[in-house]
Automatic annotation (TrEMBL):
GO molecular function term, any single one: transferase activity
Positions of the Glycosyl transferase CAP10 domain: 194-491
Species in which this protein is naturally found: Glarea lozoyensis (strain ATCC 74030 / MF5533)
The protein's name: Putative Beta-1,2-xylosyltransferase 1
Listed GO CC annotations: membrane
Origin superkingdom: Eukaryota
Subcellular location as annotated: Membrane
TM regions (residue ranges): 839-856, 868-888, 894-912
Taxonomic lineage from the root: Eukaryota, Fungi, Dikarya, Ascomycota, Pezizomycotina
Compositionally biased residues, Basic and acidic residues: 502-528
């Protein structure tokens, strides 16, 4: 799902993993109980989201936050187990576990946390502690809430700090605290995490931030509770998740690029608007609250006569800076700041004490704020919901906060934004650095700071580009590149898991069948699921194009491309699709390897004889693949990026997409050809050539791991070199599987690239011959075979009997008039039994279920008053031909899916065999021994001709299975799949050294690997299809067995297996 939505950070989970660590030290029942029942208390400030059977079952103590969270999880709730989520519905964080208690929990986590190597990849069901419906006597654990409204929060917070921290050390002072997070020059924040760490800055800001000394609501607990929150301070132990404000489509916080301005068109000002939130405002405390201090600090009148620290250029050393401690910013503030309140809020007893204090400013939309180059963001009651919009804008964000959010690990100070101290004593150092002040002079008592507009523009751009990658709604919800990259670190042999729950009332055989079907449908890895979903989308697009193409060619249009061009483009698209579909089979291959070697089903393998060896073998295989995929990562990434650009280039030339607006960028000086440039095709060809040249790298790593010499791949030797260093045939077969799969991936990816290159050449050819130069009237193309074109001398087409009407064995062709009359009579029941008649009968029955009310005396009045005639109309309109016949369609779709998989492998085989029949298949110019290549290809070609991958036996088997399903007839007894043609053994019989390492870099070797793997996949799928059909329709069984009554009572079985 993540890759399907182009999520950039697919493996950044540091924040939530840190949040969850201490929960390993708590009994699981306690966690489930607290999560399920904390929301039961109406005034506890907790809402509950409860998931059952892959759906959101219930929301408890409901409010807008949990409603948005329910929408947030909807796209992936089908992957979640039964669970209860407790969610903080207050603005302020909730949990502060004392330092010593937290260390005990973490020590327990370190000592006990582990995942068993044979852990099952499935969810546990019916767990104790979850919220239950109509539970008359629930066991509820006390969350131990306590209230501290309006009290000093640092009294609670410092208990979560280490004993030697600034917050708990009475001998610590301001200088020692600042040394941990501030730079001595200009007072700039050098460590943003420390600047918001209450254990470091708490004593200095406890009287300068409204949340710390005048919180409006504090309901907290010192017990570790599984509660999700949108923000927290560093000592809190709430579990962070993406704030609902970022996910909700609130116009107040939504960025719209069309209302933004380019950097050079913005004003040299810093802007902020807001209300007086952030704590409980009173006449005595308002001047110390954080938002009020920002407004006062930025006010030119308020700053008259006051001095602040900034930096100035050293007059004796141009380009270096020193501190200037006596700068009076009043005039600068008037010219370059626009900060103010729009209204008073959260005052006790009322806001009358603000009368005459503020000149309230008009409310300003986000779009109007983007007229300024600098947008500052500070806390309110908790975090600020406008921060994402600021980062997405073309302005530069300045951030001051004590709160932590889910995205903090993704954003970096001084690269994506400017950090500011919560005391705001560095505000004018920041602004004067970027805007500049004064004039350079050899001797002057006035500060001079040159303008750093370029640096400000660059920082703003970096923040904007990064926000577009990692802070989208799709990232909050959170394809081939991701899957291939995941093979560098993941367990590619992990078993597949089911999305559906298991019905405990069904028999073991039924449950097994369901599990097998589900396991075959959904891989465990999210990258694998994303890859399959992406390719499924492409296959769906191919089917839609195929169906719509005929209609498109009949249209009259004004454009460049005619009907023949559309046909040619479709053929090129299909050439790209076939090897892409082949790439998805990598997932199936890993699964089948795991099945055949006994790695799929987790069990107590290490406790039985040979079990530990199985586990070690799997780990070794996984290690080998991780190492090889790390080697392939860079060339795969390069070639896939080039292929993306190749498709874009072809689409631009063919007018399928519009060219982007050209815009001068002073920060971009690249010379690499871009899509649409005349030289791009040569650039793409060069990239594909580079990839082709590196095709042996992964094989050499594999060989090194197997103890083979490097020279086996760099030279062609006369004597055959064995791929395997062991005499064991099983080990040799397993090694050969690894080698073939490496070549399989490389060959298919290269084939995709060459197919894209072919489309690029076609597009450039259309531009060169003037097709794309100007629009013209496009008339419908002529039919390929007009009805009147079958003249004398034209070839005759004879269709097999399979294309004719189905014969009826119970009724021979009519010979006499009476038999013809009987055929006429049989049309009546045939018509009544047709699909249309059956549909009409179902509609009549469904309508009558409501209409019967009108024909009964006692209910006729009710029918009229309630206007049930409309219900009858809706039923008649709403039904379709498939209503009531869904089961047949369900089994038909199962069979169709299996058949399509097999046909895709057959297509892949046909595609691979083109490798040695195409004259210009490879762009490589490297010298290879012609005689050796010719002998090798001759043996391979002769064998492929005999292999007959699309054999009659496979076709006959598929037809027989199809007939059994459609007719519901059992399969013949002892029905087996056709024998596989073993390519490897047959090749080695022709030439014992034909599959040796010295041939690996032959152009046809990779194509052979594709043939070998695809043939194996066809056989495996055919066998699984036979088993599925056998479970569905049964198998003819004439065996019998006589047992006595005692054996019958004890469950003695019977059948052919006996």
């Amino acid at each position: 799902m993540a890759r399907d939505k182009n999520v950039y950070n697919v493996d950044d989970f540091d924040q939530i993993m840190d949040d969850l660590r201490p929960f390993w030290g708590i009994d699981p029942f306690e966690i489930r109980n607290l999560a399920g029942h904390m929301s039961s208390e109406e005034h506890g400030g907790v809402s509950g989201l409860h998931i059952r059977n892959k759906k959101v079952w219930r929301l408890t103590n409901q409010n807008w936050r949990v409603e948005i969270m329910a929408k947030m999880v909807q796209p992936f709730v089908k992957y979640l187990p039964d669970m209860d989520i407790a969610m903080n519905r207050l603005d302020q964080p909730r949990v502060v576990v004392p330092w010593d208690d937290m260390q005990k929990l973490l020590e327990s986590e370190r000592a006990t946390r582990h995942v068993a190597p044979d852990a099952a990849a499935e969810w546990t069901t019916n767990m104790e502690g979850l919220l239950k419906d109509n539970d008359t006597a629930p066991v509820v654990i006390d969350p131990e809430w306590f209230s501290k409204h309006g009290q000093q929060y640092m009294l609670i917070a410092k208990e979560g700090c280490p004993p030697d921290s600034h917050a708990r050390d009475p001998n610590s002072n301001l200088s020692s605290s600042e040394a941990l997070y501030k730079h001595p020059q200009g007072g700039f924040v050098s460590n943003f995490n420390r600047s918001s760490d209450l254990c470091t800055v708490g004593p200095e800001v406890q009287g300068k931030h409204g949340f710390l000394f005048a919180p409006s609501t504090i309901i907290a607990s010192k017990r570790l509770l599984p509660i999700f929150g949108e923000c927290k301070v560093n000592v809190n132990n709430d579990i962070l998740f993406p704030a609902n404000m970022y996910y909700a489509d609130d116009v107040r916080y939504r960025y719209d690029s069309k209302y933004d301005y380019d950097w050079d068109d913005k004003n040299d000002t810093m802007i902020w608007r807001g209300v007086t939130s952030g704590g409980t405002n009173t006449a005595e405390n308002w001047r110390d609250m954080h938002r009020q201090r920002l407004v006062l600090t930025s006010n030119g009148t308020e700053m008259v006569g006051k001095e602040v620290l900034i930096m100035t250029e050293d007059p004796n050393n141009q380009g270096s800076y020193v501190n200037f401690k006596h700068y009076q910013p009043s005039e600068f503030a008037l010219d370059h700041t626009d900060v103010g309140f729009t209204e008073a809020f959260a005052c006790v007893p009322d806001c009358g004490f603000y009368d005459g204090v503020w000149t309230y400013k008009n409310m300003t939309t986000l779009s109007q704020q983007f007229e300024s180059k600098f947008v500052v963001d500070v806390d309110g009651h908790s975090f600020s919901g406008r921060w994402h919009a600021f980062l997405e804008s073309k302005s530069l964000g300045i951030k001051s906060t004590i709160f932590r959010e889910w995205h903090d690990s993704r954003l970096f100070a001084w690269r994506h934004f400017i950090p500011m101290d919560n005391r705001y004593d560095d505000l004018y150092s920041i602004l004067t650095y970027f805007i500049g002040i004064g004039k350079r002079a050899k001797a002057s008592d006035q500060p001079y700071m040159p303008r750093h507009d370029f640096e400000g523009r660059k920082l703003g751009r970096q923040g904007r580009e990064w926000a577009k990658k990692v802070l989208r709604k799709e990232d909050i919800e959170g394809n081939a590149t991701a899957y291939l990259a995941s093979l560098e670190r993941s367990d590619m042999f992990s078993p597949y898991v089911s999305d559906e729950g298991t019905n405990n009332k069904r028999g073991e055989k039924g449950k097994k069948a369901d599990e097998d079907r589900d396991n075959a449908a959904r891989p465990k890895s999210p990258e694998a699921r994303a890859l399959k979903a992406a390719i499924d989308g492409l296959k769906g697009l191919h089917g839609k194009l195929y169906g719509d193409l005929a209609f498109g060619k009949r249209e009259v249009a004004w454009g460049n491309l005619n009907a023949d061009h559309l046909d040619e483009i479709f053929v090129l698209f299909r050439k790209i699709l076939i090897p892409l579909v082949g790439l998805t089979t990598i997932i199936d291959i890993f699964e089948r390897v795991a099945e055949k070697r006994g790695w799929v089903k987790p069990s107590d393998d290490q406790h039985v004889e040979g079990g530990e060896k199985l586990r070690q073998t799997k780990e070794e295989e996984k290690r080998v693949w991780n190492e090889m995929m790390k080697c392939l990562h860079e060339p795969f990434a390069i070639v896939m990026a080039a292929m993306d650009e190749g498709i874009e280039h072809a689409a631009l030339l063919l007018g399928i997409i519009s060219p982007p607006k050209k815009k001068e960028d002073v920060e971009s000086n690249g010379t690499r050809p871009k899509p649409g440039d005349p030289e791009f095709s040569q650039h793409l060809r060069h990239r594909m050539k580079e990839f082709y040249g590196t095709r042996g790298a992964a094989v050499k790593i594999w060989a090194r791991d197997r103890g083979l010499d490097q020279d086996h791949f760099d030279t062609i030797r006369e004597s055959p070199v064995s791929v395997s260093t062991k005499d064991d045939n099983i080990q040799r077969s397993e090694d050969q599987q690894q080698l073939f799969l490496i070549l399989y991936m490389e060959f298919l990816l290269y084939s995709v690239g060459m197919a894209i290159f072919e489309m690029v050449e076609y597009a450039e050819k259309k531009v060169a011959d003037g097709t794309m130069k100007k629009n013209r009237l496009i008339l419908p193309g002529q039919r390929r075979i007009p009805p009147d074109s079958m003249e004398s001398g034209s070839p005759n087409v004879y269709m097999g009997s399979g294309f004719g009407p189905r014969k009826d064995p119970e009724h021979l062709p009519a010979q006499s008039p009476w038999q013809h009359f009987g055929n006429g009579l049989r049309k009546v029941p045939k018509f009544l039994g047709s699909t249309e008649s059956s549909f009409g009968f179902r509609v009549a029955c469904a309508t009558l279920t409501v209409g019967i009310v009108a024909f009964l005396k006692n209910s006729q009045r009710f029918f009229i008053e309630q206007r049930l005639v409309w219900a009858m109309i809706i039923i008649a309109i709403g039904m379709n031909v498939t209503s009531g016949s869904s089961m047949f369609g369900f089994f038909g779709r199962i069979l169709g899916t299996a058949l399509s998989i097999i046909m895709s492998y057959l297509s892949l085989l046909g595609y691979a065999t083109q490798s040695w029949s195409s004259k210009n298949d490879h762009p490589s110019d490297e010298p290879i021994n012609p005689a050796a290549r010719r002998a090798w290809l001759n043996d391979l070609t002769s064998l492929i001709d005999r292999a007959a991958p699309t054999s009659h036996s496979v076709t006959s088997t598929l037809i027989l299975l199809s007939h059994s399903v459609t007719q519901g007839s059992p399969l013949p007894p002892y029905f087996e799949s056709p024998k596989t043609f073993d390519l490897s053994k047959s090749l080695e019989a022709l030439d014992s050294g034909i599959l040796d390492a010295r041939h690996v870099e032959e152009p046809g070797y990779s194509a052979y690997a594709v043939c070998q793997i695809a043939t194996s996949l066809i056989n495996d799928d055919l066998q699984k299809l036979i088993e599925a059909v056998r479970d569905l329709v049964g198998e003819t069984d004439f065996s019998w067995k006589v047992t006595d009554s005692e054996e019958t009572l004890t469950g003695g079985g019977k059948g052919k297996n006996d």
